[in-house]
Design a protein that fits this description.
The protein contains one helix and seven strands, in the order H-E-E-E-E-E-E-E. About 6% of the residues have low confidence.
């Protein structure tokens, strides 16, 4: 019984700390920072007359990530949200996977990814970019 309990605890902890892994594919050379911009922030339950009262709190933020070249791939994102002096601050960074074929490929517009984040805040939100420098993250201000 004790072994079963320990096994269950370890299984739960493993799932709590699981991370999504993006593997390199043929032609991928390195990671770099991708550009990001805050597109919209909408309350989950905006005040509307003649509607049933909604009890949900928070906002849904959409961030557009623009990759650096035509054949690059989205490698994931990292974010942190804080409330500082009554305003929402979203620290956000995204990873671009540079592909060797991108040096010769031409496209009309660089590929983009739309990221949706749930925030425990209602009001305006400021996006603060996080810079990806290999294994180091720094705040751009």
């Amino acid at each position: 019984m004790r072994t079963f309990l320990i096994l269950m605890i370890l299984t739960c902890l493993q799932q709590a700390y699981a991370q999504e892994v993006t593997a390199f594919e043929k032609g991928d050379l390195h990671f770099s920072e991708a550009k990001s911009e805050l597109v919209s922030v909408q309350e989950i339950c905006p005040d509307q007359p003649d509607r049933i009262t909604c009890r949900a709190f928070g906002s849904i933020a959409k961030v557009r990530v623009t990759l650096n070249a035509c054949l690059d791939r989205f490698g994931g994102h990292f974010s942190r949200f804080e409330i500082i002096d009554g305003r929402g601050v979203l620290y956000f960074g995204a990873i671009n996977i540079f592909n060797q074929s991108s040096t010769t490929a031409r496209c009309v517009r660089a590929p983009t990814e739309m990221i949706t984040l749930n925030l425990p805040f209602e009001g305006s939100v400021e996006l603060v970019p996080l810079t990806f420098k290999g294994m180091t993250l720094t705040v751009n201000q």
